[in-house]
User: Fold this.
Amino acid sequence: MKIAVLGGGNAGFAFAGHLAAIGHEVYLYEDKKFEASVKPIANAPLKIKETFAGEVRLAYAGSDMSQVAKDAKVVVVAVPAFAQEAMFTEYIKYCEEGQTVIFFPGNYAALRFHKVLKDQGMEGKVLLAECDSIPYATRKSAPDEISIYGIKEFLFVAALPASRNQEVIELWNQEVYGYEFFRDGVNVMYSSLNNTNCSIHCTGCVLNAGWIETKKGDFSFYGDGLSPAVCNVIEGVDREAGNASELFGKRAYTQKEFFMEYYNIPDFPTLYETIQASPAHTVSKAPQDLTARYVTEDVPFGLVPIATISKSLGLEAPVCQSLITLAEVLTGRDFIAEGITPEKLGIDGMSAEEILEMIG
Assistant:
């Protein structure tokens, strides 16, 4: 199968390497401004270390979207949330009828870009879907090398509309991975609210700001930075995300459940013990400064929607709001203005029931 992978970062390299390794024809795209990131593998093998050790050759790696999108059955969008708009805008110039576009992770992408398609008279041309995370614990270990430290047991996926969830599940499980990996993500509100990145990344960075700036990231983010007290705050974010997602059909996973279910970590008494038992995470270094994606992506695209959606539906989210405020003071940025809000999703003033009807 021809699969287009959009994004030449950690996730894009991991997808490209894994999918090529299991026999797919992979076309990797990166924006012209960042094309240097894929040049090392344009005419040379992509090396894979750790879980999927070996070398693969991609069918294409470059910045020509027309080549990448043409005849692709599946389009994987594997870029940070703040880069999704530019990537999707370029893709729809060349998109083809019936393609399935999956955002990893979603960060409310399906709702945001459904509006783009509708405004351009292209509604229904492609099927939009999103996941709650990416499959891999991964980092680039060299310009032509990706280290995949682990792969999750499963991910939740949701399509827009939710009535087409099963179609996406069968496509990925039967034709892409070849085993049962995707599970029904209820709807695109649940799949986005179930993204646990913000609870662990934002909390860990805000509460370790001094250490990050002093040590320049030279410590284990998960192993050293997420102490028992920090884990208490993470669980506070989990509760607020769960309260909001429950209105859309299912309670979001807690961080502890995430580690147990997605990475098959045993059931320890506390979140702190659970994190310490995950070797795929404790090897990961902290960000070098507070401009890292753990803050600049996960606050506006993770914490802000939890807080603002909760408020619009009559729920309180004081832990999320406190972390947003601290992150804004630490960085001097207005993450509420930058972030995803009900207004930007087109659901402002709507009840949960009305939103469910719209995305069903």
Observations:
- DSSP finds 18 helices and twelve strands in the chain.
- The chain has a mean pLDDT of 96.
- The longest helix spans residues 228-246.
